[in-house]
Amino acid sequence: MAPQSAQAAQADQAARAAQGPKVLHAAPKGSGADCTATRPCTPQAARDAARDVGGQDVRIELADGTYELSEPLKLGAQDSGRDGHTVTWTAARGAEPVLSGGRTLKGWSRADDGTWTAEVPEGITPRQLFVDGERAVRARGAACAAGTCDATKTGMTGAEATGITTWRRPTGAEAVVKVRWRNYHCRIASVTGDQLTFAQPCWTNSASGTNRTGPAWDSTTVDSSRYSGVAFFENARELLDKPGEFVWDAEDRTVTYLPRAGEDMRHARVLTPVTERLMVVDGAHDLRIEGIGFAYAAYGQPSTDEGYAGTQAGLTLTGATGPVDHAGRHYTKPSAALTVRGGRHVAVRAAEFTHLGGAGVIFESGTKDSSVTRSRFTDLSSGAAYIGDTEPSPAAGLAGERNTVAYNTIRRVGVEYTDAVGIWAGYEAGLTVDHNTLQDLPYSGISVGWGWNQPEAQKSVLRDNRITDNRITDVMRVEHAQHDGGAIYTQGAQPGTVVSGNYINRSAYGNTERDGNGIYLDEQSSHIRVEGNVITRIGYKWVSNWADYGIQNLATGNWTDTDAPALTGTGSTMKDNHTKLDRLPAEALAVAARAGANGAPAEQLRPDLARTGTASQSSTDGTAQAAYATDGDTSTDTRTLAEAGAWWQVDLGDVRRVGQVEVWNNTSMTTADFDVQLSRTADFADARTLHVDGRALRPTLLDTEAEARYIRIKLTGTGRVALAHVLVHPART
Asked: How far apart are CA 364 and CA 720, in angstroms?
């Protein structure tokens, strides 16, 4: 047969293109190689069949149902679109296919104490458990203060005081430690008297002195001065005391669970993540992944002797040895359900990531011109999206460039590894993070840039990134005790980078210390423009640029309900910002309403009656005058002398109906054990009193319905009253 002429080949290719894409069908119980709607294939067989299609687009349509994977679905260069065409993996019309790494645990038996136990097959290590789609909690105990659990480079004390010496199998338990922005999970290796030792290299990598844990100034290891104790020990049978908790016993190979109200383990569907990665795209291009679910993927490293030695943003230090690298070049990302390595024009759209033991998506190893859009991330142990790498000077082919994360919804991520962030990017250029909605996160929302102020990271490929029109609410949740972050966090010199149009509300709100930012230009963040953002209810600074080696940043045209000190960075400036607001103007409300994946109204500020009142206090320490608490700025502080019954008060000028009082403690968290008194008269004879035990937060909110002209904050003992801000809101009508 004579070879086909070039003209004939072109005509054949044109004819194929005109007839539309080649459609291949896959199903959970698919078999054979037909890949038709009536005789679908497995996803792997459909992938192989697509390799033989040329000259036209290919669509691999997944039928409804759960695809249980014992290993990742792997797509390589041969699975790319060819000759200008695209290969699309997508849900069939009306279908909701889910790639799952979960395994069902069956055969539950009930004990007299109300717990249920099931045997676990070999090869499965249940680190997470999901009962009828709801995440269970590894059984955990109380916190152990540093005075009892005194950490050293080799372990810690506290085995006797915590009762660990009496546990049946303490070596199945882990210590969970939180120090500033870091999170550590290390398994107990042995117990000798009062001494605990931990699995290696986890403990060494969590302690100081490895010479590769970060910058020289770093003091956030478990044996550092910043260490305050163990947040909790977890995964011991003796700790199983709350409904919804479970314990994994590696020696008996059993899981024991204490059901929540209404759960019947005889009929419940119980899943544990087993398969680590569900889809791996390695070197592919012109590929689309649309409408597919990813669920119950595992993250095995924390259950090994490596443990989880957190460094920042969900990355960990691994290995017993390694190069000296204070810029974190060699840190390890979490495992993700979908990993793209060296991809080009890979588009992930309308996917759903849920119930994961690790992260959602990773783009790495020089992935370029690729995107994650209109997808949902919910209930993840780690972060949602990790974009790029931590090498400041990669070879051209390994640089992350022109990637996009847009119009995604991210809620309740970092559930287990609370140092993780919603969206993380390393040394990226031309990155777009746009119109995402991020809500209910333990630490920072969006983090772009890397390298602290280390010499090897001062000049990198970072540049021209855009963090725009995102809605970020209820992040840096104080109950998770992760500090020193922000709703939007940056590092590194990134010329041309813009942070604009974002709506940030409640970052580190209700904090227990002077901490938590709206937009945090950390370390050597440089050449960044912060413009037109709406930033409200922030635990500390609405914008922070504290390091003088961060240079030439500009904050302009932003709206906020507080103020912040001038930017410290060399050549950095703030101008034309709308600060100290107690109501958002229409323009700000419009910006906030446009932000996020779907748009939504902003939470309007409440008017502040104290702003126009007259403040006074029982005494004044130095220049810390009473009016600093009514100046609309949470970074300025009042302070009295230490004295019995010290007080601060504001006269509203007239009797008003008061609905709420906000008390913001000063930056040293001084004010504690006090009454808030509301009175119509200056002698407080008719005062209504609300008592606060312990320290005031930033803020402590006190709801009331009272008519008052005078509001006084008065100690019930001896000490100082020191306040950053007091707001008095009128009753709602």
From this structure: 53
Gap between the terminal Cα atoms of the chain: 88
With beta carbons less than 8 A apart as the criterion, state whether 424 and 394 touch.
Answer: no
Backbone φ, ψ for residue 172 (5° rounding): -95, -5
Burial letters 183-221, b for 16+ CB under 10 A, else e: bbbbbbbebeebbbbbbebbbbbbbbebebbbeeebebb
Q: How far, in Å, CA of 376 to CA of 354, rounded? A: 8
Contact status, residue 459 vs residue 493, Cβ threshold 8 Å: yes
The answer, yes or no, to whether residue 686 has pLDDT greater than 70, is yes
Q: What is the pLDDT of residues 283-302, one digit of tens each?
A: 999 999 999 999 999 999 99
- Retrieve residue 441's tokens: 């996160």
Cα(141)–Cα(241) distance, integer angstroms: 9
Q: Which two tokens stand for residue 192?
A: 């000798």
Residues 461, 444: Cα–Cα separation, whole Å: 23
Distances (CA, A) of 169 to 108, 175, 232, 251, 523: 22, 14, 17, 9, 44
CB-based contact 144:227 (threshold 8 Å): no
* Residues 519/520/525/527 CA torsion (nearest 10 deg): 20
Tell me if the bond preceding 699 is cis, omega within 30° of 0.
Answer: yes
Give CA–CA dist 699/457, Å, rounded.
37
Where are the strands (E) in 442-521, listed by range?
Answer: 446-448, 466-468, 471-475, 486-490, 493-500, 503-507, 517-521
- Which residue is it, tokens 């717990």? 115
Contact predicate 720/646, CB 8 Å: yes
How many other C-beta atoms lie within 10 A of the C-beta of residue 466? 18
Which helix (H) or strand (E) segment is 481 a member of? none
The identity of residue 622, as a single letter, is G
CA 225 – CA 552 distance, rounded (Å):
33
Task: Report CA-CA distances (Å) from 260 to 245, 266, 356.
Answer: 9, 14, 21
Query: What does DSSP say about strands 385-387 and 423-425: parallel, antiparallel, or unpaired?
Result: parallel
499-519 pLDDT, tens digit per residue, is: 999 999 999 999 988 888 999
Which amino acid, one-letter code, is at 161?
A: A
Q: What is the pTM of this model?
A: 0.96
Strand partners, 488: 446, 519
Which pLDDT tens digit goes with each residue over 208-255? 878 887 777 778 999 999 999 999 999 999 999 999 999 999 999 999
- Number of other CB atoms surrounding residue 51 within 10 Å: 14
Element holding 590 (H helix, E strand) = helix 586-594
| d(C-alpha 638, C-alpha 651), whole Å | 16
308-312 and 182-192 strand pairing: antiparallel
Are the CB atoms for 415 and 130 separated by under 8 Å?
A: no
